[in-house]
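User: Hello! I'm new to structural biology and keep hearing that structure can be predicted from sequence alone. Could you demonstrate with Methylenetetrahydrofolate reductase? Please show me the input and the output so I can see what each looks like.

Assistant: Of course. The first part below is the input, the amino acid sequence of Methylenetetrahydrofolate reductase. The second part is the output, the predicted structure written as tokens.
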Amino acid sequence: MTKNKTPSLSFEIFPPKTQIGNQKMLQILNDLQQLSPDFISVTCSNTKGSFESTTIKLADYIQNQLNIPTVTHLPAAYLTKIEVATILDHLNQLNIKNILALRGDILPEEPAKDDFKYASDLIDFIQAKQPDFKISGACYPEIHPDSANRITDIQNLKQKVDAGCNELITQLFFDNELFYDFQEKCQLANINVPILAGIMPIINRNQALRLIKTSEAKLPRKFLAILEKYEHDPIALRDAGIAYAIDQIVDLVTQDSAGIHLYTMNHAETANQIVAATASLFHKQKMIS
Ligand code: FAD
């Protein structure tokens, strides 16, 4: 396993859906910039045209106005090779050379296109078209839901890394032991790229309820107790949710994780509080007032 002396700290944001959201996003990004992230990644929905209409515009602002490296998420199951080639050219023109190459979810009501059956097909394609791009891939400490079992999931992940993935970012998880177990299995399978741990602070009731209803992630007793006890106390729930994320991060960094990727849910203040509590672990100066 590759070990960084200094773990990376990065943030994920998603493109807002409204004009007001877009205006707020500029402030969010300016706030996140103060926290000196190693990169900011921008998600992309797998609906047609989404990348060009939202993701790439935000990524351009982050990379070229804020001068923060950006990683663009690119789910390709519903795209053709011609469409992806156009996207890659556009990214190259904007000097954005980092992609999180994704298959994306397959919608039950809409069959996927044939060009990119798996993320590894997209990685092969990017490598051929833009060999100097840095490619990240997604991984799942608790197994991808489409996989029959852990063994095939890890074998497929190995294939993805061998296709040319420079780094992996995990799905969110709340139990660090599952992550350590996954890391060990990757090591045994000779998957040696850095694995960034995806951490999502839970800061409000809606988020908590959605998580309980839909999440594939195991919710430890300690975590469920927080959600239950502070369900009707928004401030306590927020404080406890942030403290839980900080506790996970301290443990992960102490145990030499390659990096932390914070699912910010576009809440700069939450990221701010977490960085304020952990900045020295990432050898970052505290710039928080
Ligand atoms: P793949 O790596 O292709 O894997 C999908 C499934 O196929 C797995 O079960 C895998 O084991 C299996 N598989 C892979 N290769 C093979 C093979 N050669 N033969 C047989 N089986 C194979 N979704 C979005 O729509 N937008 C986003 O912005 C987004 N960002 C994400 C960020 C992160 C960090 C993560 C972890 C997920 C993100 N997702 C996003 C969700 C992701 O698109 C879904 O989980 C999707 O279902 C799988 O995408 P993948 O790239 O991991 O697929």
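User: So the tokens describe the shape?

Assistant: Right, they're a compact way of writing down the 3D structure. Reading them back into a model, for example: The pocket of flavin-adenine dinucleotide is lined by residues 43-46, 73, 75, 100, 102-105, 118-120, 138, 144, 146-147, 153, 156, 159-160, 169, 171, 198 (CB under 6 Å).
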